[in-house]
Design goal:
Number of helices of chain A: 11
Structural class of chain A: alpha+beta
Radius of gyration of chain A: 54 Å
CATH architecture of the largest domain in chain B: 3-Layer(aba) Sandwich
Shape of chain B: elongated
Number of strands of chain A: 14
Distance between the termini of chain A: 65 Å
Strand order of the largest sheet of chain B: 2-1-3-4-5
Strand content of chain B: 15-25%
Shape of chain A: rod-shaped
Structural class of chain B: alpha/beta
Largest sheet of chain A: 5 strands, antiparallel
Order of helices and strands of chain B: EHEHEHEHEHEEEEHHHEEH
Number of strands of chain B: 11
Order of helices and strands of chain A: HEEEEEEEHHHHHEHHEEHEEHHEE
Strand order of the largest sheet of chain A: 4-3-7-6-5
Helix content of chain B: 25-40%
Number of helices of chain B: 9
Largest interface: A-B, 24 and 26 residues
CATH class of the largest domain in chain B: Alpha Beta
Radius of gyration of chain B: 19 Å
Oligomer: heterodimer
Helix content of chain A: 40-55%
Strand content of chain A: 15-25%
Distance between the termini of chain B: 14 Å
CATH superfamily of the largest domain in chain B: Response regulator
């Protein structure tokens, strides 16, 4: 087992917190025990003091003199030698004092005066350099109780003191015991808590160890069962899992894109290279060379179109907007321009493009795209519709708007899109029908570019098609939703 | 020799077919997707399949696995745009005989195609020598006892096919299937004329010897019927012997 606690570690902080709480509790226990012990022991001390004062009072006897005075008989008085006492009568005459008291009045507050409290006054005093607790009580001694009238009552005042040092000693001992107990507890629980925390945080460490093994080459992440079942770690585990899954998906997607792009580019280069090598394989006539060169030129134009489309896609997909002011295009204007641009191709394919003048309110309707991108997006969509239209058919464009959205619908009357191809039409380099799109010179990027442009502007493009052999020429419907720029 | 080209890129397929026809004079059939390629490959008349990896409908690797699963041992040359040793190892382990990475050199493709056909028929060297008849498949020249013989392209292709399989009876149909592309049946009448002309030209170079191509009525043709079965005279005859030992080919 290895303990490594950095100041920022959870274990370190928890241990410090627990030890601080323990230390606080120990101090509290010491303070409380000090208060309790002092109260308890001084109470007992006071009772003892009272008892001894009473016994001193008991030693006051009839002096057997004519004045009916009292005297202190010290012969039968047994008190600890360090204790001090003085006895006074009501007249302020000293009746007697303990032998260790040299002279009267060297303790503060004690004297012949009557105590204010019915059970006596307690006060502190320092005698011969020692701390004493002193009790002053008033007692009554009856002289000649056998005589008529019950004898004479004589008031006496007893002042009795006992040193407090041994009481304090006892209290200190008790407090020291509690303090020592607290320290031992701290010393024992510190490592114990560390060990328990180390064990308790095991699922976290296992999770971290497994998560650290994930890399670009190995996305495998199976969280330990302990992490899954720990309520604090379950959300974290789940988050790591889903993040990794998303990352892996997008990473594989990126890798597939690069691989597809490489394949397309290499194939295009292979075509040009093989065309040239074929031409130089043997001597040929000028006419053959001419034809070969034209083929090579057409091949390099395809490569050029491919590179241009790839760059357009990369630009449309980049998250940073183009420099300069954010784009703003009149969508109706843009559709008109696009239709005009593709008129030649439409005529060539004998397809009619129908775009009824839209009834937009308010007009013009602006979308947040730069004009070039808008034209690129629309021409890609329209070109796609034209390429899938049979001769003598029509492509219908319909532009509409509501408060926030402009909606453009492009409807063709071709064969439609097979159900299995529908989810892939926006994929890069996807060709629904390889031979046809190859013949029309498509790069397989047109729809992907259009979608990227629409998404960058916060819009969407959806495509719907229900090819039905019974109802031919249903075609496909492309719907573009674009937010309206203020 | 007849080659099946499976490639979805029309322009590349055009160029490859033209090169294979113009250069070594192979007959070429072209399939533009994997399924079509698989259908074509079911006829046992190809001496080589040139296969692109990324194809619509059925990819090249799956086609290759299907081919090998039905014990078709036709040599396969893969055209790939993929990088990395992993995919090459996977391809070779799946039964590919060779591969070329795009963009490739056309001359290299032709050389590898010829080598694969040669190897597929059990020969190691591009020059064949049988009974004084020497055929150099690189230069496409034929000589008998040092005398060069001028042959028409079709005559040469007939001889090239027969020299790969000495002493084996090659039927007219087999010859037709391997020399012409999918419309070989149109050529069934002229093949006899080509063989007859070829025999005349070969025998004219050494009139005293026995006819080098024997016609077996109703069964086909046989090159070098009296080919001595001596072993180890040269690498070429060794290779030829090896192909005799496998009459099933």
């Amino acid at each position: 087992m290895k303990f490594r606690f950095q100041p920022r570690s959870i274990a370190f902080r928890l241990i410090v917190a627990v030890l601080a709480v323990e230390l606080f509790s120990a101090v509290l226990v010491v303070v409380l025990s000090f208060g309790y012990e002092r109260h308890f022991h001084f109470h007992a001390f006071d009772v003892m003091l009272q008892g001894r004062a009473d016994s001193v009072l008991g030693a006051v006897q009839d002096a057997d003199d004519p004045g009916d005075n009292v005297m202190l008989d010290q012969a039968d008085l047994h008190v600890p030698p360090e204790d001090v006492y003085e006895v006074w009568d009501a007249g302020g005459h000293l009746l007697g004092r303990s032998s260790n008291l040299k002279d009267a009045g060297n303790w503060q507050g004690a004297g012949p005066g009557a105590p204010t409290h019915p059970f006596g006054d307690f006060f502190r005093s320092t005698i011969n350099g020692h701390h004493y607790r002193v009790l002053r009580i008033q007692g009554t001694r009856t002289v000649d109780p056998g005589e008529k009238g019950g004898g004479k009552a004589r008031q006496v005042v007893v002042v009795y003191g006992s040193p407090t040092s041994h009481v304090w000693h006892t209290i200190r001992g008790a407090v020291e015991f509690y303090a020592a107990g607290g320290i031992v507890l701290l010393l024992v629980t510190g490592p114990l808590i560390a060990w328990l925390l180390h064990r308790g945080l095991l699922p976290l460490r296992q999770l971290a160890a497994l998560a650290s093994q994930v890399s670009v080459d190995s996305w495998q992440f199976t969280p330990p069962a302990s992490a899954r079942t720990t309520s604090e770690l379950a959300p974290l585990t789940h988050a790591i899992e889903s993040v990794l899954q998303r990352l892996e998906r997008s990473f594989l997607q990126q890798r597939a894109i690069v691989s597809d792009a490489a394949h397309e580019l290499k194939t295009a280069v292979a075509v040009i290279k093989s065309s040239l090598q074929l031409l130089s394989m043997k001597p040929r006539s000028a006419k053959e060379y001419q034809a070969g060169l034209e083929r090579c030129l057409a091949d390099s134009q395809r490569l050029e179109a491919l590179v241009a489309d790839m760059l357009a896609l990369a630009r449309a997909e980049s998250s940073t907007p183009a420099p300069g002011q954010p784009g703003k295009t009149d969508i109706a204007d843009c559709v008109h321009q696009t239709v005009a641009q593709l008129e030649t191709i439409a005529t060539l394919r004998n397809v009619q493009v129908l775009f009824p003048e839209p009834d937009l309110n308010p007009n013009p309707t602006h979308v947040p795209i730069v004009p070039e991108d808008c034209t690129l997006m629309l021409s890609n969509l329209l070109l796609n519709a034209l390429q899938h239209s049979p001769p003598a058919s029509a492509v219908e464009l319909l532009l509409n708007r509501d408060a926030q959205t402009a909606v453009l619908v492009i409807q063709d009357h071709g064969d439609g899109i097979p159900l299995e191809a529908l989810p892939h039409v926006f994929d890069r380099f996807y060709r629904g029908d390889p031979s046809r799109t190859r013949n029309t010179g498509g790069t397989g990027l047109g729809l992907a570019i259009a979608q990227a442009i629409a998404q960058k502007a916060g819009g969407t493009i959806s495509i719907a098609s229900q090819p039905d052999p019974a109802l031919p020429n249903q075609g496909a419907t492309v719907t573009v939703h674009l937010p309206i720029a203020e | 020799m007849r080659v099946l080209l499976v490639e979805d890129e029309v322009r590349l397929a055009d160029n490859l077919a033209a090169a294979l026809r113009d250069g070594p004079g192979f007959a070429v059939d072209w399939a533009e997707d994997g399924e079509a390629g698989d259908d074509f490959a079911r006829t046992p008349c190809y001496d080589l399949i040139v296969l692109d990896l990324m194809l619509p409908k059925l990819d090249g690797l799956s086609l290759l696995k299907r081919l090998r699963a039905r014990r078709d041992s036709t040599p396969v040359l893969i055209l790939t745009a993929k990088e990395g040793a992993d995919s090459i190892i996977q391809l070779l382990n799946a039964g590919a005989d060779d591969y070329l990475a795009k963009p490739f050199d056309l001359g290299e493709l032709l050389a590898r195609a010829k080598a694969l056909i040669r190897r597929g028929k059990g020969a190691a060297h591009p020059t064949f020598t049988v009974l004084g008849l020497e055929v150099n498949t690189l230069e496409q020249t034929v000589s008998r006892n040092g005398v060069f013989i001028d042959l028409s392209p079709t005559e040469y292709r007939v001889l090239e096919y027969l020299i790969h399989r000495p002493r084996v009876i090659v039927s007219k149909r087999e010859l037709l299937e391997h020399l012409y592309d999918y419309n070989w049946e149109h050529h069934s009448n002229v093949i006899e004329v080509h063989v007859s002309n070829l025999r005349k030209k070969l025998d004219a170079a050494q009139p005293e010897a026995e006819p080098i191509i024997e016609t077996m009525r109703g069964r086909g043709y046989r090159l070098a019927p009296t080919f001595p079965p001596e072993a180890g005279t040269s690498a070429e005859s060794g290779a030829a012997l090896k192909s005799i030992a496998e009459p099933g080919k």
